[in-house]
Design brief:
493 residues, two-stranded antiparallel ribbon, 77% helix, 2% strand
Length: 493
């Protein structure tokens, strides 16, 4: 009975647990409940992935109302892949958040914090798993509203400004998505994604369809921080509590990339998206500009969280570049980088959170010589940094390798050169952190600090070692991503 209802439990469990956190009030009970729920979500995601790999796509109809009349949850290979990384990151961040949140969030707001974290998790998981376009919008707003709250809970008063900016731009993006979904419903009379895909096939010359497509691409572009619609991201990542920065950087933009994949390939179809509407003419130039310009901006940042935030915009551009190439190899690269970048940025932001826990800052000048006092924390940071650069035997190398292969298949040598140049630029801005932490002396007027507590180190090292292990054993990531890419291109079963 439970196995048959796993798709519903994936979303309902964190959704119903969120108000319980508020009822539990102060103390660590709310954290314990949220952590247990995150682990259950990971177990459900792993079970769904095994089921999909063994039996094919899983369909779940709410209230036994068959699609397209009722809301349907659909878990195929792509969805199961993204569910696993979102739930896996959450299951790592929630245990980490106990000490981090006690340091950075006022005690009377901690129960609210965990409730918002669970709502954000429920929304993100629901976005991935739903087969209904309007339900996707609702779940998108659940995750977005909780995210605005989480960002605003940062200690720095600029967190409120960052949350407000995120709210304004996020609302504009959501409005565009809602208008696009409304136009599709007006044109086809259905909201079920599979039904939409069938009814759209004969309507490619419809101006209503073309307008809906434009609204959806722009709206989703805002949500995934597609350059130049990324302005909300740097401040949100910089001033949010450390646990929130780690969760958002590893999941929020990745889920938005997944939504873009769903609409371009599953609903509108490859031919309409790339031959009729030529969206690749937009995605590829923006991606190439973003990878270079955002990497350049990152080099000149003195706040390391802001540095990694601009780096994230560049890394999202790698994913959209893979999508714009429109080949199985390109899509495989995009899906791999979606998965791998979550591991990379999750580990980096968790390591920075451990530094902030001890010294109350992540400014470069405050981190001078910190590696001598926090060797394990900075070792984890270095390992994840090597992965971000794309050093062999790390996950970052795997996804960049497939992206380069996809560009070579097209004969785009300039794109290959740009990928290599931007990887070297990552060396420059990450070396600034390593040089300050390892090769500069600790100022004499600074108090000595000790290594981060194990409650912060253990989750950080879980993600850091995952960058190494999954960079060596690529059967799971490359295998699932490759099969998902073939299905998205219409070449798989």
């Amino acid at each position: 009975m439970i196995a048959a209802n796993l798709p519903a439990l994936q979303v309902v469990l964190p959704l119903l647990s969120a108000p319980l956190c508020v009822l539990l009030g102060r103390g660590r009970a709310a954290w314990l409940l949220a952590t247990v729920v995150s682990w259950l979500a990971l177990a459900i995601a792993a079970a769904l992935l095994r089921q999909v790999l063994a039996q094919g796509a899983v369909h779940y109809a709410f209230g036994d109302w068959a699609a397209p009349w009722g809301i349907e949850y659909v878990v195929d290979g792509t969805a199961a892949f993204v569910l696993l990384i979102v739930a896996g990151i959450a299951a790592t961040v929630f245990p980490y958040s106990l000490l981090s949140v006690e340091k950075e969030v006022d005690p009377e707001r901690q129960a609210l914090f965990y409730a918002a974290m669970l709502l954000c998790l429920a929304g993100l998981l629901g976005i991935v798993i739903t087969g209904d376009a309007f339900n996707l919008f609702v779940l998108l707003e659940i995750s977005a509203l909780s995210t605005y709250t989480l960002v605003s809970l940062g200690q720095d008063r600029r967190a409120l400004t960052a949350a407000y900016q995120y709210l304004i731009l996020g609302t504009i993006g959501a409005t565009f998505i809602l208008i696009g979904v409304g136009l599709l419903y007006m044109l086809t009379g259905t909201l079920n994604m599979a039904d939409l895909a069938e009814r759209i096939e004969g309507l490619h010359q419809s101006r209503t369809l073309q307008t809906a497509f434009a609204f959806l691409v722009v709206g989703i572009g805002l949500k995934l921080a597609l350059f130049p619609m990324h302005l909300w991201l740097p401040n949100a990542y910089t001033y949010a509590p450390s646990a929130v920065s780690a969760l958002l950087s590893a999941t929020a933009t990745k889920v938005a990339v997944y939504v873009l994949l769903r609409f371009l390939f599953t609903i509108f179809g490859t031919w309409f998206s790339f031959s009729d509407m030529n969206v690749d003419w937009i995605l590829i130039p923006l991606a190439l500009v973003a990878t270079f310009s955002m990497s350049l901006v990152a080099i000149f940042q003195n706040n390391v969280k802001r540095m990694l935030a601009y780096s994230s915009v560049a890394q999202v551009a790698y994913m959209t570049l893979g999508i714009g190439i429109v080949t199985v190899t390109g899509l495989t690269a995009a899906l791999l980088h979606l998965f791998n970048h979550a591991l990379i940025k999750g580990a980096l932001f968790l390591a920075l959170g451990a530094v902030f826990y001890r010294i109350g800052s992540v400014q470069l000048d405050r981190m001078q010589g910190i590696a001598r006092e926090m060797p394990w924390t900075m070792a984890a940071f270095v390992l994840a940094a090597l992965s971000l650069i794309g050093v062999p035997m790390t996950v970052g190398f795997v996804s960049k390798w497939y992206l380069i292969l996809a560009a070579l298949e097209k004969g785009w040598w300039l794109v290959v050169v740009l990928i290599l140049i931007t990887s070297l630029m990552a060396v420059v801005y990450l070396w600034r952190v390593i040089e300050a932490a390892y090769f500069r002396p600790r100022p004499a007027d600074r108090e000595a600090v000790s290594e981060a507590p194990w409650g912060l180190l253990l989750p950080t090292w879980v993600l850091a070692l995952a960058n190494l292990y999954l960079g060596i054993d690529t059967d799971l990531s490359v295998g699932v991503a490759g099969e998902a890419a073939q299905r998205l291109m219409g070449l798989g079963p």
